[in-house]
Amino acid sequence: MSTFLLAGSAQAEWLALGRSENFRAYMDQKSLQRNGDLVQVFQLMDFVTAQWADERTVVGSIKTLVEYDCGQPRSRTIALEAYSEQMGDGRMVATERLPNPEWEGVEPGSMSERIRRMVCAK
Fold it and tell me: Would you tell me which of 5, 44, 74, 107 could form a disulfide with 103, CB atoms 3.0–4.6 Å apart?
């Protein structure tokens, strides 16, 4: 899966979804993969200011592979990678593949709901 994340992000075209005081959110529309009612898409959280994971590890951005259920308002994170620079650049400082990710409800009005509507409409 880590190789999949890296390969998928090398040619990503990040679509800006919004921003907060602390980060900007993006999604890679080219990465959409549908299997019935389930859609997987790469997302990116790009921090405005570097975040410190510990005294030696700085995180500039986090890429996630998220799965949305188009039949029910729910999603789950499949895998993630943290990078030392913004926009998924620099050194990968952490990676995790979640073996049995739990589904979480998608809250009305949330960024997750907006993304779910976009990917499920494709």
Answer: 74
pLDDT, one tens digit per residue, over 59-113 is: 999 999 999 999 999 999 999 999 999 999 999 999 999 999 999 999 999 999 9
| Domain spans, the chain | 2-121
Q: How far is CA 50 from CA 23, 44, 63, 76, in A?
A: 10, 14, 15, 25
Helix, strand or coil for residue 121? helix
C-beta of residue 83 within 8 angstroms of C-beta of residue 45: no
Question: HSE on the CB side for 41, CA within 13 Å?
Answer: 25
Pick the CATH number of 2-121 from 3.30.1330.10, 3.40.50.1000, 2.40.128.710, 1.25.40.10: 2.40.128.710
- The C-alpha atoms of residue 71 and residue 117 are separated, in whole angstroms, by 11
Q: What is the pTM of this model?
A: 0.85
